[in-house]
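Z., the sequence and structure:
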Amino acid sequence: MSERWHAPGRVNLIGDHTDYNEGFVLPMAIDRECLVAIAPGTDDRVRARSHEIAGAVDVAANGGDNPRAVEPAWGRFVAGAVQAVTERGARLPGLELEVSSTVPTGSGLSSSSALSVALTLGLADAGGIELDRHEAAHVALDAEVRATGVPGGLMDQLTSLFGEADHALLIDCRSLDMEPIPIPDQMAVLVVHSGLPRTLVGSAYADRRAACERAAADLGLASLRDATLDQVRDNPKARHVVTENARVLACADALRVHDIDAIGPLLLASHASLRDDFEVSTPELDLLVDLLVDVGALGARLTGAGFGGCVVAIAPARDAHAVLAHTADRYRATSGLEPSVFVAHASSAAGRSLVL
């Protein structure tokens, strides 16, 4: 008999490249998720298959395999999770895993983190260790870094593990305090994939993070969370972090009072900052933002780390499907790319699923 574990992806409403600077983010878990079914195996190996991606994964249950050397590439997340939980005391028996996901890959919607969270929860349980949700977030991040080599922040894992239905999650990435904030009924959250996959491996993500760390060190600060606008005014990368933190808090304030008209300009200012100061946008993402606003969205921005993937927008709920349809038609005609679109609904957190 198998155990099933699920973990949602996330869309970040606002607050990108602030998490690893100990700043503020405002994501929400979405109704797209990764599922991992775990059944007993017959030896000391962990084997996994994906419903969507070809290739079988076969790694040592004791965590002895180097995740970065595992093929196929998606199996590196399995190996990373096996290694991360065994180093924390899990004693894994042989296991058979089946993985499926409705989170689009390469989209900036945390498909990798959803997989890592589901694997972490399931493997920790199978290995006889208990992790509270904050610990699980750190272990899942550890698994992902082992798999990819990309030094990410904790936003994605925390959102997957603490998300609440119909709520965004304001996260203080220094204290890890979290405040669920209701999504107003009159506001729809729209997601449009540009048709160009986003990858962080080999991207400038690590360079951006290093630039932020250098800027903080030059100011004698622990992180850019503590910087003022006057201190960073002449440093575009650092300036983005400081101004983005302010936009996150302003957006949370607007959500609390259901002032959706105030949110749109904040999203547009965030995109402009990510495009011009942090330099992580692409022409396709810029085009989507312009088209969304032109056909009736109140605001839009790239979501995730950038370099491709998705944009997020907000619109009056009554207009949501029309805005998406018009945007897709015009983007297809202008770019020659095939977008994918959906209305995102805030989802509940990762956990054990009933066996069906």
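The two ends are 11 Å apart (CA to CA). The CA atoms of residues 4 and 37 lie 4 Å apart.

Let me know what you think.
H.
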